[in-house]
Amino acid sequence: MAAGNILVIDDEEKLRSLLSRIIRLEGFAIFEAPDLKTGWKIMERESIDVVLCDVKLPDGTGIDFISALKQKFPSIEIILLTAYGNIRDGVQAMKNGAFDYITKGDDNDKIIPLLNRAMEKVQLQKRIEQLEQQVGKKYGFESILGASGIIQEAISLAKKVAPTDASVLLLGETGTGKEVFAQAIHNGSKRAGKPFMALNCSAFGKELLESEIFGHKAGAFTGANKDKKGLIEEASGGTLFLDEIGEMHTDLQSKLLRVLETNEFIKVGDTRSTRVNVRIIAATNRDLKQDVQDGKFREDLFYRINVFTISLPALRDRKSDIPVLANCFLGIFAQKTNTHIKSMSKDFLEHLQQHDWKGNIRELKNVMERAVILADNPELTVSNLPLELQATAYDSKTLSAFDLASVEKLHIQRVLNHTKGNKTETARLLNIGLTTLYRKIEEYRL
Fold this sequence. Notes:
CATH class of the largest domain: Alpha Beta
Low-confidence stretches: 394-401
Mean pLDDT: 86
Number of domains: 3
């Protein structure tokens, strides 16, 4: 397997052939061209990694060629070869984007090591691009799972507002995926290559939150030994996501309002304004309109952040999406724990879909992680669920929660959980025979 694709552009056929033979012995795939026009056609047709190019060619110079090549093929590295090296050409070549500049004949022993270094740079850049694509997919709209109409409507709204610079307010219960939406909106915007900074406003007191968001100058307060940039400055050019904005103190709301109105703010302990270019996405599980009426949230700030509102549905309102979400978490945690769990039983899924999910997607994620850790078999069963979820549903044979069989089933399940599935110990604790236990396990489909 070739170590990479090299294009040699030189009008001297003997030298070109010699270079090609030397380079081919190192495992590289070689393409040859006698002039720039031919070389350009090869690059448009083949996936070239590194170009070895003569400076003086029949249809132009390698130095001028670099700029055009880098503009169309930025990931290709180019090494210039010249019969008569001079500092001026070398400097210009490097300015135009050449990887290096060497003299023919005198530097033949340097070509292979130089090619290897250039190839390492190309491969590193390709890896970075792959990671960026993976990150974009991980945090893009593709990462928001669910086919229900209610979640698709929220995704559609988010996609429409993403390319703009409008402030967005995400409303929804805890655990509905507000930060995932914020990240997807950022990645779907022209700010995607810039920072995305997130902060939970409920996690800090007033003074600490002010410093976290706006930064401070050295000496502004006890312990402030050096200047610190706030997240709003760190996010300049990109997006700042303020989760639970309803918990922000009204004094800080005034400072945030100024940023939205003027793109300026003053750090703690500073006397000069700092300019920023930042998009604000806010989120809350509170009723901000009611907070405005109660004097807990500034009305002017509310209308500034409420330019575009998206309501995220609770998981109980889109239960048809639970199987796909659960399956996604199953794959993640099975890989994370290096286990071979591949599926979920029908009863397991039924229990998930009948639960109320007050913690929404975050709660489901935690339940799935716990289930994968507890599982001893390739399929997740009801016994892998927490007791409160096991009690939320019964099979079709059950008449009511007061039915004796239902009570017996639940009790056996609890003891099985306690013994981590040890049937002998379970039978001992229940004071029944092992055969009886197996019969009941089959009867109740445990």
